[in-house]
Amino acid sequence: MEKVLAMLPTISWKDEAVILIDQRKLPQKEEYLRLKSVEQVARAIETMIIRGAPAIGLAAAYGLALAVRQQKTEQNLDRSFEKAYERLWRTRPTARNLFWALERMKTVFQKHRRQGLRALKDIMLAEARKMDEEDLAINMKIGEHGQRLISRGDTVLTHCNAGALATAGYGTALGVIRAAVAHGKKIKVLADETRPLLQGARLTCWELRRERIPTTLITDNMAGYLMKKGEVSLVIVGADRIALNGDTANKIGTYSVAILAREHHVPFYVAAPLSTFDFSLQTGEDIPIEERQPDEVRRIGGKLITLPDLPVRNPAFDVTPGRFISGIITERGVLRPPFSRAIKKFAR
């Protein structure tokens, strides 16, 4: 991986390489990396250089385009493509967008396989770029639908980062907040810090500060107290996978926020594109939950905060039951309970 100094979007393609910001180093340092192999793209997804369900889907799409474009002859093309596909498939198990993107790119590969390698190289890159453009447009539609749920003077609580850094450049949950501000609604944001990797503190606050949206950082265990005091108007979070009944996997801690919101009669919304829905799963019980390495909990910023050999649990996500969700904001509008009926309309 090579460092790139120029300021670019969250992810892009330039000079036969995938360019993305190293999100591990934010907000202290804005550094872009140039990825020139499928393995580098896969490692970037695994090590959280890039994260957020839509964003890792786009990274995987560009990764497959890269694999085809690096092929010099048609010999072993199918085997090379399948190897790249399987490598990217293994990176992270929870986010549905990753697998959706890989499946879409594979369909395009198979459909145009007989057109020859030269044409296929352009077709695969064009499809990845198309998905990139679509994601930005979808997020803006999500924002437009979701901003209607926010009133002037509201304080919105969000958990983790579902903003430009997690997407093609606008955001799902933060896209709703951006759209509300664009409509002239003077609102405030409470950002959970989101342990263990502090995506709320590092990424959400960085994004919103750049846009001068009033934001206050809180620790994850302050949310209930502030809800009880009436300081939270509504909650909006993103999603990594949504089952047919509305059960939603999102960053660990989301489930706790949803329970607190229900107890204090605070509306709790999920913002996600339709590519996040897994129409093969009836409930969230079947959503695979990624368990990450222990040092993400033992250390903060590389510094040990506990005993070096202490056993650790580190599930990256939890599942919020659909019964705790007031609505799911999509590019086609806001879905309301009962979710099984509403979601099945899109599954046809």
Describe the overall structure.
This protein has helices at about 40-45, 55-70, 75-90, 95-110, 115-145, 175-180, 200-210, 225-230, 255-265, 295-300, 340-345; strands spanning about 1-5, 10-15, 20, 30-35, 155-160, 190, 215-220, 235, 240, 250, 270, 300, 305, 315-320, 325-330, 335. It is an alpha/beta fold and about 350 residues long. It has two domains: about 1-140, Up-down Bundle (Four Helix Bundle (Hemerythrin (Met), subunit A)); about 145-345, Rossmann fold (3-Layer(aba) Sandwich), CATH 3.40.50. The strands form four sheets. Strands 7-6-5-8-11-15-16 form a seven-stranded mixed beta sheet, with helices on both faces. Strands 1-4-3-2 form a four-stranded antiparallel beta sheet. The protein has a three-stranded antiparallel beta sheet with strand order 9-10-14, with helices on one face. The model is unreliable at about 5-10 (pLDDT under 50).
